[in-house]
Amino acid sequence: VVRAMGQASGEQFLAGHTSPITTLVVSPSGRYLASGQERFMGLKADVLVWDFESLQLVHRFVLHKAGIKALAFSPNDKYLASLGDEDDNSVVVWDLEAGAAICGAPASMGSSGVAHTLAWLHGSETSFVSGGEYTLRKWELDLSIRKLRAEEGRLGQLKRIIDTLVVAPGDAGVYCG
Predict the structure, then answer these.
(1) Which residues are registered as beta bridge partners of 43?
(2) What pTM did the predictor assign?
(3) Secondary-structure percent of the chain, ordered helix, strand, coil, rounded to 5
(4) Which of 92, 115, 129, 177 sits a CA distance of 20 to 30 A from 155?
């Protein structure tokens, strides 16, 4: 990971991954930078969280098999959601204060396709959405029992592969690309 500091400062390199980086995201406050990598099947893929100001590694999260598809921070930088690749097919929510996983769940139903992307809702610390091959889901994090609940998006006869999500201001809707 490279941090461009401006012409006078040059570049800063953040070292920590052992395989190609597949996703990179900056937290809403700009405090954190998170990155995910791909690995061979059977090997665990790392999610690294960096303090963006000091450039120090804060957390190394290791649960996903084979690769990380997407990452998303909650609005106040308290949580990070990670989405494993098609071999992993799981979504995990991490507590950034505790530095540990809160819970996880299968990213998609067997009848729907693989999830590709995540986006956290702006007005909620416990709600985010995922999208992918013929799948759109809204997730709710229940902290009291450390569980994720998914609600399937009603796409009807519409068949789409969602590669990117943007949550509208005020959480009025989700734009899917």
Answers:
(1) none
(2) 0.91
(3) 0, 55, 45
(4) 92
